[in-house]
Fold this protein.
Amino acid sequence: MRSLYSSHPTWMHALPAWVKLAALSVCGTLLVLVERPVHLGIACIVVLLLFASLGRTAWLRVRMLVGIAIGCALIVGFHWFLGTTLLGVASALRLASAAVLALMLTLTTRFEDLLAVLETVMQPLQRFGVPTERIALGIGLMLRFAENFYVQWQRLDDAYRARAGHGGGLRLLAPLTIRTLQTAERVADALAARLGR
């Protein structure tokens, strides 16, 4: 499976995976606790500046911000229709900040490092007979499939745009589903071979 991880070094690559995961957890919690749109707007600007500080790594994935912006616009539009515009703005800013922080984590952290942190965090559960390695692997695979889903969509959209001159839109759902299922089957076969099942 292809990953969104960028091998181009940035200041964030030097930070340990557990530090970045802890920072993401703290920031996500603070975003939930903050309610005023002004404060959330400031937080969103700070997050975007941090994203821009990644330089070339951020520029290569700047298209992902368009999808985040569209999602936020839909949230604001929905709340405007309901007459709760300020709540929609706050929700959109909160979502945008959290999504960009998660994107930064994905771009600068190897899958193996994330998996190691998850296994370490859940290690105390082994005393109760919980198969922590499999749970950590499952969570890691879920994160990797989310990355792979976007990468596959981007490749299909680029290929369609090169042929037709415009994006594929909903036409890409069928080939994207097929590719995702093929990837899942390959991963399942690899895991079966490795686990002896």
Q: What stands out?
A: Helices lie at 17-33, 37-52, 56-60, 63-82, 85-108, 111-122, 132-164, 173-195. The mean pLDDT is 83. Residues 132-164 form the longest helix (33 residues). The two ends are 21 Å apart (CA to CA).
